[in-house]
């Protein structure tokens, strides 16, 4: 199996990639980098400018290997899955592969440090939409990430804005920054009400929106201080990875309380 990191993981959150390799090492599943890969490219922005270029670049990436290609980014997953289905390539998302092929019980067996945390699951719009092409989970009431969170010993807390867009994807953050900030603020209000330790995502663009977006809101005098973490990082730490190896220093917002809870855990 080959891992396709995409632009956001490589350039902003390399700890996610490191965590993916750690997790699969613990699981005993062989995975290696997709050498020579480029931008996926982005399903909303690039495709809206030139569908031909979008398709050609995606095909180039997919043709770099005959093995299954895995990504931990919802946007990359959307592009590579759609084009991959057309040309007979197998494309998987980190989260759905863990849930379907590894299984929650098997993951639970590999946990060396239970994480006693209250966490808010954020799926991201592109993980299971468009539903007719993804066929992963219910687009209205998904459960995959909630179950994966429980596997590390944490509580997945329901909250008012759980299924709402964070405002980061679909070109919103790039083309309509004010709308993106408004969506993020509404999303965070719901998370804040739930009194969680962190938001758990399965897409680096969502992580970027929660992370950097909160810093932008702070400039307007709106403070939330809610950390966000990719599930790959969370799982790797629960499986025994040193917290300082998970790349959390690249995050804009990580509270001392969260850091200490990740560090200590429960055996």
TrEMBL record:
<keyword id="KW-0560">Oxidoreductase</keyword>
<feature type="domain" description="Cysteine-rich">
    <location>
        <begin position="120"/>
        <end position="211"/>
    </location>
</feature>
<dbReference type="InterPro" id="IPR004017">
    <property type="entry name" value="Cys_rich_dom"/>
</dbReference>
<dbReference type="Pfam" id="PF02754">
    <property type="entry name" value="CCG"/>
</dbReference>
<dbReference type="InterPro" id="IPR051278">
    <property type="entry name" value="HdrB/HdrD_reductase"/>
</dbReference>
<protein>
    <submittedName>
        <fullName>CoB--CoM heterodisulfide reductase</fullName>
        <ecNumber>1.8.98.1</ecNumber>
    </submittedName>
</protein>
<feature type="domain" description="Cysteine-rich">
    <location>
        <begin position="2"/>
        <end position="80"/>
    </location>
</feature>
<dbReference type="GO" id="GO:0051912">
    <property type="term" value="F:CoB--CoM heterodisulfide reductase activity"/>
</dbReference>
């Amino acid at each position: 199996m080959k891992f396709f990191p995409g632009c956001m993981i490589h350039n902003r959150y390399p700890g996610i990639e490191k965590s993916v390799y750690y997790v699969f090492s613990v699981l005993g599943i062989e995975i290696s980098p997709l050498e020579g890969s480029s931008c996926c490219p982005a399903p909303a922005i690039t495709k809206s400018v030139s569908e031909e270029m979008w398709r050609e670049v995606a095909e180039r990436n997919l043709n770099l290997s005959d093995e299954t290609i895995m990504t931990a980014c919802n946007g990359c997953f959307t592009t590579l899955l759609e084009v991959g289905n057309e040309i007979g390539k197998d494309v998987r998302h980190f989260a759905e592969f863990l849930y379907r092929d590894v299984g929650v019980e098997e993951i639970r067996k590999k946990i060396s440090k239970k994480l006693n945390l209250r966490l808010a699951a954020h799926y991201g719009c592109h993980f299971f939409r468009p539903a007719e092409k993804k066929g992963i989970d219910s687009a209205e009431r998904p459960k995959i990430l909630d179950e994966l969170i429980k596997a590390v010993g944490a509580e997945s807390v329901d909250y008012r804005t759980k299924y709402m867009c964070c405002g980061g994807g679909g070109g919103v953050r790039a083309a309509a920054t004010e709308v993106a900030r408004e969506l993020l603020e509404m999303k965070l209000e719901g998370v804040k009400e739930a009194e969680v330790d962190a938001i758990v995502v399965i897409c680096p663009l969502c992580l970027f929106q929660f992370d950097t977006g909160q810093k932008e809101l702070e400039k307007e005098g709106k403070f939330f201080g809610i950390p966000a973490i990719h599930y790959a990082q969370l799982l790797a730490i629960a499986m025994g990875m040193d917290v300082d190896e998970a790349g959390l220093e690249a995050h804009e917002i990580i509270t001392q309380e969260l850091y200490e809870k990740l560090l200590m855990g429960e055996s």
